[in-house]
Structures are given as C-alpha cells and as structure tokens.
Amino acid sequence: MKAVKVFGIAMVMVLAVGFLASGEAVPEKGKKVSEATINGAIQDGRYDEALSLLQKRISAGEEGEYSLYLKGLVLYYREDYDGCIAGLSQLMKEYPKGKWSYKARFRQAAAYLAKREYRAAEAIFEEEAERLMSGKRKDRIAVVYIKFAEESISPPDKLTKPDYDRAYRFL
C-alpha cells in the first residue's frame, strides 16, 4: 500500500513539473515565437512575458505589423497608455496603409480616453468617422454589393440556379 502511495505522489510530481515547464515555454534563440504562445501569455495576463516574446518577434522581423499592434495592445492592458500610443504610432508610421492601422487608431483613441486626454481622442474619432462615412468608402462598399448581386444572378457554378431574390436584396 505504501508503494502505491509513493508511486502516486511521484506521478503527480512528474505531471506537475511537466505541466509547469510546458506552460512557460520561452523559445530558444533563433527559433520562431509562436502566435499561440504570445496569445496565451496575453490571455493569462502575463504581460511582461508577452512583451518579451513580442520584442523578440519584432526584432526577428516576424509579422511586423501584427506584432506591433499586439505590443500596443499589451501596453494598453498594462495601463501603460503612453507606451501604447507610442507603439501604435510606430505601427502607423511603418505601415500607413496596413491591415491593422485602423484598429491601431481606435486603440490609440481608447488610450487617450483612459488618460483623460479627451481632445486627442476626439480628434482621432472625428477623423475616423469622416473616413468611415466618406463618399469614397460608400462607393467601394456599393461596388462590393453590386459584385455580390451579379454573382447571385449568374453564379460561377453551372449547377447553381440564379438567385434573383438574393440579388434584389443586395441592391
């Protein structure tokens, strides 16, 4: 009976050590930092670890735009609003037309709000509202709707019947 108890305790220890080692895995030098590792650190609130991993990723030139956005996001979560604003400014400077630039602008505005710098936040929101409601953007969206309507009328697949009701709803 004593041997079973000792074996059970030994198994728990081995599993615990293995679990802890796998949860805090920091990549070796030269290895890529996985997105899952970074996301896990962010979701668990291990912001210092996430920043360290993101810095390695940025230094290695891996997914620069997204990594810079995540860095700004982590700084925002840490309530380092000045760092967040600076980091996201760097993103917009390096990737002015990037996929994450608009989201970065809104996060910057949120950081200004958290700092109670309402005029700066208002300026960003006003600029983005003008962009979102501009005639140019409305024209781009209209082109997308027309494309969907045309695909509903004449589907690329010969087996699919035209859906005129769907096309009508798009227009």
Q: How is this structure best described in words?
A:
By secondary structure, the protein is mainly alpha-helical. Helices cover 74% and strands 0% of the residues. The protein contains 9 helices and no strands. Helix 4 (64-77) runs antiparallel to helix 5 (81-94). The protein starts with a helix and ends with a helix. Residues 3-28 have low confidence and may be disordered.
Primary descriptors:
171 residues, mainly alpha
What is the general shape?
extended
Count every helix, treating DSSP H or I runs of 4 or more residues as helices.
9
Count every beta strand, where a strand is a DSSP E run of 2 or more residues: 0
Helix and strand string, N-terminal first? HHHHHHHHH
Q: What are the segments in which pLDDT stays under 50 over at least 5 consecutive residues?
A: 3-28
Estimated structural class: mainly alpha
How far apart the termini lie comes to: 77 Å
% residues in beta strands? under 5%
Mean pLDDT, to the nearest integer, reads: 82
Question: What's the story with the biggest beta sheet?
Answer: none
Overall helicity: over 70%
Rg over CA atoms, rounded to whole Å, is: 25 Å
Put the structure in a nutshell:
The chain is an all-alpha fold and 171 residues long.
